[in-house]
Amino acid sequence: EFIEGWRTYVVPLRERYGFKIVAAFDSKETSEFVWIVGYDGTDGFKAADARYYNSQERTKLPWDPTPYLENVELRLLRGVPIYAQLD
Predict the structure, then answer these.
(1) Spatial contact of 38 and 19, defined as CB atoms under 8 Å apart
(2) What does the pLDDT read at residue 12?
(3) In the chain, which ranges are E strands?
(4) Residue 41: which of 23, 20, 56 has the closest Cα?
(5) 38 and 20 in contact (C-beta within 8 Å)?
(6) Under the phi-then-psi rule, with left for phi > 0, alpha for psi from -120 to 50, and beta for the rest, what region is 18?
(7) Cα gap 18→73, rounded to integer Å
(8) pLDDT digits (tens, 9 = 90+) for 52-86
(9) What is the distance between the alpha carbons of residues 21 and 14, in angstroms, rounded to a whole number?
């Protein structure tokens, strides 16, 4: 139920706000859900994330993920090249 709501409501709205969903994973054994969200805007992820959460579209979503969430962690990461650059 959570994943269907996330796919139907959260993903399209995130994408409208310029985010890219890179990957998503779930674990039935631990009831964990992890998703990797990218953002390339010049204002940075934190500003875009705040704009998303404060938007009327977000507050008026017909589905609320909050009842499904026990713990939320946000980690800001940067990409690392897989192969070393050759000079």
Answers:
(1) yes
(2) 98
(3) 19-27, 32-39
(4) 20
(5) yes
(6) left
(7) 21
(8) 999 999 999 999 999 999 999 999 998 888 888 76
(9) 8
